[in-house]
Amino acid sequence: MNYHTRKWIKPEDLNPNHSLFGGRLLQWIDEEAALYAIIQLENSRTVTKYISEINFVSSAKQGDIIEIGIEAVEFGRSSLTLRCEVRNKMTHQKIITIERLVFVALDEDGNPKPHGKTTIEYVEDRLNVKNTSENNLNKLR
User: Fold this and answer.
1) Which among 7, 16, 28, 91 is placed 20 to 30 Å from 67, CA to CA?
2) Residue 133 pLDDT greater than 80, yes or no
3) C-alpha span between 58 and 20 (Å, rounded)
4) Which pTM was predicted?
């Protein structure tokens, strides 16, 4: 599991129990997972299709630092399924787990669009491929 984002729990993130409001955490998770899916599928028209059961394991309090972990578990024809875990940065205590978040790549008309992806790609690998291709073209000139 790769932890991409950290959040510092502030007063505006709390519920009446003075712990992290679940809705705020779900907002952060959906945004982080959507960004991950958009980058992987190279399609800014990627949208949330489904979020499975959400398991709140523990809570976070004001001043805690949490981290959001995302990992890809399955590539579909036009979809990407992710798994998410949020933990306390300092103690590594789990706060929430979500087994399935499904994102779908869309075309300009809002219809599912095949993405052709089957494995995780890292941006630096894409940049290296692009730079290698450009260098090869320059050598041919």
Assistant:
1) 16
2) no
3) 10
4) 0.85
Note the residue count of the chain: 141
Query: Bridge-partner residues for 46, per DSSP?
Result: 105
Q: How far apart are CA 14 and CA 10, in angstroms?
A: 7
User: Cα–Cα distance between 60 and 135 in angstroms, integer?
Assistant: 50
> Distance between CA atoms of 119 and 9, rounded to whole angstroms?
34
The pair of structure tokens assigned to 34 is 């959507």
Q: Give residue-wise pLDDT tens across range 47-59.
A: 999 999 999 999 9
Please enumerate in sequence order all residues whose Cβ is within 8 A of that of 67, keeping only pairs 6 or more positions apart, or say none: 3, 5, 6, 7, 86, 87, 89
65 close to 13: Cβ distance less than 8 angstroms: no
Rounded distance between C-alpha atoms, residue 83 and residue 15, angstroms: 25
Task: For 22, list phi and psi in degrees, rounded to 5.
Answer: -60, -35
